[in-house]
Amino acid sequence: MFMISSLSGCAAPWDVTPVSSTGLYFDTVITITLYGHGKRQYIDECFKIADKYEKILSAKDPDSDIYKINSADGSPVTVSPECTEIIKAALSFARESDGAFDPTIGALSTLWDFKTATAPPNEDKINDALVTVGYENIHINGNDISLSGGARLDLGAIAKGFIADKMKDYLISQGIKSGIINLGGNVLLIGSHPNGSSYKVGIQKPFDDEGNFAFTLEKSDCSIVTSGIYERYFEYENRLYHHILDTKTGYPVENDISSITVITKKSTDADALSTMLFVMGRDAALSYASSHDDVDVVIITKDGSIIRS
Ligand code: ADP
Ligand code: MG
Description:
The protein is 30% helix and 27% strand. It has 309 residues and is α+β, with helices and mostly antiparallel strands. The chain has two domains: 2-54 and 158-308, T-fold (Roll), CATH 3.10.520; 60-147, ApbE-like superfamily (T-fold, Orthogonal Bundle). 39% of the residues are buried.
C-alpha cells in the first residue's frame, strides 16, 4: 500500500509542507509523514515508540515480554501493561472469530518460515504445532501472563496496528492534527490533509509491480490495512504457500481471496480484522462489514474482481 501525494496546484505554504522520515523496525519499513516545519521532533519520537514496542513484542529478542512468556514453560511472567493490553485485544478477536484469528499460533507460524523456506514443513510437525494453538491456553492475572498446552504467542497479525495507534495517541497529545503513519502498509491517517482534502491511499495490485494499484481510496481520519497472499509466500510444486494460516488445518488458508483491505477507525482493529476476515473468507467478511457500521472491507479475489462491502 502506498500513499499518493496529495494534489495541489500551487506551492505549499511553509506550514503544510510534508515532513517525512523512514526507518526500519520489526522487519518493517515504517514512514511517518507530518506537515509543517518543526514537526521532525515528533517523528523522531514515533521512532522511539516503535523501538519501545519492538523491545516488548519481538518474538526473537530474549529480553522481550513475548519471548519471556513463550520460553517460561507455562510459568507466569510479569509483563508490561502494554503487553497485557495487546494480548487482551488479540484475545477479543480470537473469541469473536472462534479461533480463526488466534494469537497462540506461534509454534505453527515459526514452523512455516516464509523468509527462507522453499518447501512446506513436515506434516507431523505441522500437526504437533497445531495442537498447541488455542487461545484458551492464555491465562491473564493482572499483568502476569502464562501459557498452557505448549502454546506460543505470535502477535504479528495485530502488532503493527497496535503500535500505529500508540503513535497516533502520542501525536494527538502533542496537538498534531494531520499526518500519516505507515507501518509497512498498515496505514493510519490522522485527521485530513491540512489543505482540507482527504488523503489518497493506493491499494497494491496483488503480484504486480510495487506501486501498481488495483484501486485508490480517498479517506481521512481512519486506518486502512491490507492482508494478502502476495506479501510473503513461496511456491512449491506449482502451489503457492502464503503466510496467513488456517488454524483448523495448519496450512495456509485456501479460499478465493487474494487480498482483503479493512477500513475502520482504530488501526489495532483494522490489522486484526484484515487477518481474521481473510481466514473467515469472502462471505463472512462481507457479512461482518454489513453488521458493523464502522467497518468497511474491499476484497480482491484471485481472478481479479474487486468486491466492496
Ligand atoms: P502482515 O504482517 O504481512 O501485514 P497480517 O497482518 O495478515 O499480515 O499478519 C500475518 C501474520 O500473522 C503472519 O505472518 C503470522 O505471524 C500471523 N498469523 C498467520 N495466520 C494467523 C491467524 N490465523 N491468526 C493470527 N495470526 C496469524
Ligand atoms: Mg493483520
